[in-house]
Write a structure and sequence with these properties.
The structure holds two protein chains of two kinds. By secondary structure, chain A is an alpha+beta fold. Chain A has helices at 14-23, 36-41, 77-82, 84-89, 91-98, 103-106, 111-116, 124-130, 227-233, 240-251, 264-293; strands at residues 7-9, 28-30, 49-52, 62-65, 68-72, 134-138, 143-147, 152-154, 157-158, 165-172, 178-185, 196-205, 208-217, 224-225. The model of chain A has no long low-confidence stretch (mean pLDDT 95). Chain B is globular. Chain B has a five-stranded mixed β-sheet, with helices on both faces. Chain B has seven helices and five strands. Chain B is an alpha+beta fold. The model of chain B is unreliable at 169-195 (pLDDT under 50). The chains are: A alpha+beta, B alpha+beta.
């Protein structure tokens, strides 16, 4: 259980890190270490060279640039939870961060790691996808920005190519009268992976739903956008009955497996219940916001 | 000072307000360096995988699992372990609260519990039950059922002015079980429990 035979590289800039990634063929990224160090200790993965991102200032912190919030890739869940910009504009994201793992892990883990590990039960991606976040992927020669909804391709698989580094997450500020909510079900209240989770976002206009997005976590190989349920809500008058109907549609949009945390059948039931709760809360938040303005 | 071997290098770690120059390997976790090199064995190695919280230390005031932190990356940070929280006058009031509330049984989780609780009371000197549960949810205890630990943290302020229990007095030995007696040591000094006897010659 001691880590032997690894070499840590500690670049000071993104450019240096990208250079190392290009040069060292089998190098792995070390961000918070809460996944990779555990896997290395258990012999589940191998790595000779680890590129630590810890010293790269540009990958840290949360800032507002015009109508966009930028979250650096090695920002911790603890920082996301306590950040005033996130709490103001994306309270659901602050909540999602606060329910992750334990306090000790929340102070170590990173948002970039939570995304690039590509585990479908991860807590931050559903809400990030629901609000239309995109990620910046850089390599030594180029840089691209893609919507997070197109990032995941399978369990532990993403569109990230060899030599690419996820450097930042960009969140467009929500339009007026928007409410966002994240609900998850776990077997314990802390230190537990989601059995199922649902993030939803509703934007209201003149009493009707102008735009809706429902994202399901832990019920498919990747987080999935429940397209049919989201489209169903378009231009509808929000009501408990409408949300119930959308939840019934969303239930069929996951493709869960049975595992140690729950059966496929149970997960489908969870999707329905969590979608309904999440839509109600998103609606309440959107309405509260519009009331405040008036 | 110890000479670095092989791929080891010397790093300077600030532990309990003291600077230590120590030879560390690339993959050495802070936990292993604290225990094996600095002999600060109050910090416990439980799962070694970031789940149990027994290895919790404060890094720049935040509780973190020292088994998931590489020691070499801790240069320039301020590390506090269980050995660094007692004052000249004796135990930290939190430690006295743990003893008086019977919150220690085998004692193995105690140092981690105390460190997480310490981070909490620095933010919220009068924590409510829910806040305590939340703050300690990354620390597993297999003996106590947690109730006494919660009570100890909730009532810690009452022990700010009290004296340390006389750990070797007759009354202490009669009134407290041996395991609790050991528990104080676990949360107070370094190489006291039988688990932490170092092999001969080290």
């Amino acid at each position: 259980m001691y880590l032997t035979g690894i070499k840590i590289h500690s670049p000071q800039t993104v450019a240096e890190a990208l250079g190392l990634l290009a040069d060292l063929k089998n190098a792995r990224i070390l961000a918070g270490g809460t996944d990779i160090l555990v896997d290395l200790k258990q012999g589940l993965t191998e790595a000779g060279d680890l590129i630590s991102l810890k010293n790269i200032q540009k990958l840290k912190g949360i800032e507002k640039r015009g109508e966009i919030i930028r979250i650096g890739a090695i920002t911790t869940p603890q920082e996301i939870h306590s950040n005033s910009l996130i709490r103001k504009h994306f309270p659901a994201l602050a909540e999602a961060a606060s329910f992750m793992a334990s306090a000790q892990i929340r102070a170590l883990a990173t948002v970039g790691g939570n995304i690039t590990s590509a585990v479908s039960s991860a807590d931050l991606p559903p809400t990030l996808i629901a609000v239309g976040a995109s990620v910046e992927l850089r390599c030594s020669r180029s840089s691209r920005k893609i919507p997070l909804s197109e990032f995941f391709t399978g369990p532990r698989e993403t569109v990230c190519r060899a030599g690419e580094l996820l450097t930042a997450i960009f969140l467009p500020l929500p339009p007026p009268n928007t409410g966002i909510s994240y609900k998850k079900f776990t077997l314990r209240e802390a230190n537990a992976l989601s059995v199922a989770s649902v993030a939803s976002r509703l934007t209201l206009k003149d009493g009707k739903i102008k735009k809706a997005a429902i994202v399901l976590g832990a019920v498919a190989p990747t987080p999935v956008l429940a397209l049919k349920a989201s489209e169903f809500l378009q231009a509808k008058n929000p009501s408990p009955e409408v949300f119930e109907e959308a939840a019934a549609i969303a239930k069929e949009e996951g493709n869960p497996i049975s595992d140690i945390r729950g059966s496929a059948w149970y997960r489908k039931e969870l999707i329905q219940a969590l979608t309904r709760r999440s839509l109600s809360e998103a609606f309440e938040r959107a309405r509260r916001k519009s009331k405040k303005k008036k | 000072m110890e000479q670095p071997k092989g791929t080891e290098r010397i790093v300077v770690l600030s532990v309990n307000r003291e600077e230590h120059s120590v030879a560390v390997g690339e993959g050495d976790t802070l936990l292993d360096v604290l225990r094996d090199k600095l002999r600060l064995t109050g910090t416990k190695k439980g799962c070694n995988l970031g789940v149990c919280g027994a290895c919790t230390v404060l890094i720049d005031g935040e509780p973190k699992n020292s088994c998931l932190v590489l020691a070499a990356s801790c240069e320039g940070t301020d590390i506090t372990t269980i050995e660094g929280i007692s004052k000249d006058s004796g135990l930290h009031p939190l430690q006295r609260a743990f003893i008086n509330h019977g919150a220690i049984q085998c004692g193995f989780c105690t140092p981690g519990m105390v460190m997480s609780a310490l981070a909490l009371i620095k933010r919220h000197p009068n924590p409510q039950s829910e806040e305590i549960k939340e703050a300690l949810s990354g620390n597993l205890c297999r003996c106590t059922g947690y109730t006494r630990i919660l009570e100890a943290v909730k009532n810690w302020k009452k022990y700010e002015k009290t004296k340390d229990p006389p750990s070797h007095s007759y009354s202490w030995r009669v009134l407290k079980t041996l395991s609790r007696d050991e528990g104080i040591y676990l949360s107070r000094v370094s190489d006291s429990s039988c688990r932490d006897k170092l092999p001969h010659g080290l």
